[in-house]
Amino acid sequence: MIILTDEPLDPVAVTDSVRRDGNGAVVTFLGTTRDNFGGKEVTRLEYEAYDVMAIKKLQEVRDTLRADYGIEDIAIAHRTGRVDVGHISLVVAVASPHRVQAFEACHEAVNRIKTIVPIWKKEWFADGSRWVACEDHEFADEAEHAHAHAERHAVAAGD
Amino acid sequence: MQFDVRLFALYRERAGASIVTIDLPEGASAGDLTAAVRADYPRLAPPEVRIVVAVNAEYADDDQLLQPGDEVCLIPPVSGGC
Fold first, then answer.
1. Residue B80 is nearest to which of A52, A113, A158, comparing CB atoms?
2. Rounded to whole angstroms, what are the CA distances from B17 to A39, A110, B11?
3. Could you tell me if A124 and A84 are in contact, meaning their C-beta atoms sit under 8 angstroms apart?
4. Nearest-angstrom CA–CA distance, B40 and B20
5. Is this complex scored with an ipTM above 0.85?
6. Residue A158 is nearest to which of B6, B10, B50, comparing CB atoms?
7. Residue B7 φ then ψ, to 5°
8. CATH at A113
9. Total of domains in chain A
10. Contact B75 A158 (CB under 8 A)
């Protein structure tokens, strides 16, 4: 199951899609909107996607994880549009016969999604907004500095 | 060759447009395209930053040649899933 939608996500449905009797472990990750960033109150997030390519890259994440971890049952659902504080923007569910592969593949799925899937997050504050680049958080106390750093990161990721 | 180049997120806002039209000679590459976009929109990204291009919904190297009718998009730093 690969889903990209502007509707609320259903983590139970995504999780159920990977459950099989041959699996003894199911790991589900939920990414949710945090109410703060860098000491500032975040009021909501907004996700934009290049839909066709995002679906393709989510499938690629699933397929490469299947090959790398030797497991079959992986499901990913990602939101677009406005996601309020506390709401879910990402569901990754992985099931495997034993727990270690499920934990590791689930973690790695999120890492790969952040690296190659063309989806962008905007944080809204009371007094403005900024586009985020994932691995940029430790530097992001000042917006322009953050963007410059993020773009250098993207250069490396794009190569 | 003329391309309607799609922009997303940060690049869309910086350019003030979701599609920009770029004319390129036959045999132009993805790198030629970003150079042309930079010439028209110098504030899109700092000069030291590589602008990532997607051609037909796949990441492209700068030396990939463009064909008429290709769907071309500029991909700012991604931030899904977090």
1. A113
2. 32, 31, 9
3. no
4. 9
5. yes
6. B50
7. -115, 145
8. 3.90.1170.40
9. 1
10. yes
Instruction: Flag whether B39 is in a domain.
Output: yes
* CATH number, residue B15: 3.10.20.30
Q: Is A31 an 8 Å CB contact of chain B?
A: yes
pLDDT, tens digit, 9 for 90 and up, residues A62-77 = 999 999 999 999 999 9
* Residue B30 to chain A, least CA–CA distance (Å): 13
Of B42, B33, B29, B44, residue with least CA distance to B4: B33
A108 touching B (Cβ < 8 Å): no
Quote the domain boundaries for residue B26. 2-75
Token match 């730093």: residue? B77
Q: Show the domain range for A152.
A: 2-158
B78 and A153 within 8 Å at the Cβ level: the answer is no
In a domain, B70, yes or no: yes
Give the count of domains, chain B: 1
**pLDDT of A36 strictly over 80:** yes
